[in-house]
Amino acid sequence: MRELRWLLRGAPPFAALSAVIVLGGASLRASAVVAPAGCGNPQTFAPEPSPDVAGTPGFVLSPLLDGSGTLAGQRVEIRTAAGGTLRLELPPESFAAGPFGQAILVGADDGQRSTLRAFDATSGCAWPLAGETDVIRRATIDLSAGNVYEFRVDRGTRADLGVWRRPLAGGPAALVLTPLPADDRYGPTFSTELSWSAEGDVLVAQACGMSICRTRLLDINRGTVRTIETADQGEVIGLAGDRLITYGACRGLPCPIASIDTTTAEATTLVPAAAAGRIVATAAGPRVLAEVGTDDERALVLVDPASATSVAVPASVRGWHLVPSAARADGALGVPTGWALLTRDGSAPGPGDSAELVRVDNGATLDLTEVTR
Question: What stretches of 211-320 adopt beta strand conformation (E)?
Answer without folding.
Answer: 213-219, 225-228, 233-240, 243-248, 255-261, 267-274, 276-280, 287-292, 299-303, 310-312
